[in-house]
């Protein structure tokens, strides 16, 4: 059994703090960017026509989304809020085991994305845990926000790390 006096225990604890810090910084920076851009979108885009940035590809279009991706599950806003809370708790609890930069970034993005949309669901109209998410980045097929971008990149990183067999602690799964 390792104790706090064991050098490998101290080294692991210091290493873990590095990855937890990276996870925290990624989550906080992306969450702040998400919330600031949503405030700006409400201020500058609400009630206006779409602003085309790249013709046929990218516009700024204000939308309040009661559901999940592509407005699916619009009648389940409370359930989506509770799922987001559970995801956030699970990710935060998992963070203490991080020993891999990729997982730290991926889970930081996952937390930022889940929290970014959860903040909207808690604090925006029409009611707490039933609020509508502010979306404004129009890709032509769907309209999203910075939190959605974070969730997409989180999924890519997490799937990539898992596919390569890299665990949270940075070790590799042995191929059978």
UniProtKB/TrEMBL annotation:
The active site is at residues 135, 148. Belongs to the peptidase A8 family. Signal peptide: none annotated. It comes from Aeromicrobium yanjiei. Pathway: Protein modification; lipoprotein biosynthesis (signal peptide cleavage). One of its GO terms (molecular function) is aspartic-type endopeptidase activity. It is found in: Cell membrane. One of its GO terms (cellular component) is plasma membrane. It is an enzyme of class 3 (hydrolase). GO terms for biological process: proteolysis. The keyword Protease applies. It is a multi-pass membrane protein. This protein specifically catalyzes the removal of signal peptides from prolipoproteins. InterPro entries: Peptidase_A8 (IPR001872). The chain crosses the membrane at residues 68-91, 103-119, 139-163. It catalyses: Release of signal peptides from bacterial membrane prolipoproteins. Hydrolyzes -Xaa-Yaa-Zaa-|-(S,diacylglyceryl)Cys-, in which Xaa is hydrophobic (preferably Leu), and Yaa (Ala or Ser) and Zaa (Gly or Ala) have small, neutral side chains. The gene is lspA. Keywords: Aspartyl protease, Cell membrane, Hydrolase, Membrane, Protease, Transmembrane, Transmembrane helix. It holds the Pfam family Peptidase_A8. This is Lipoprotein signal peptidase.
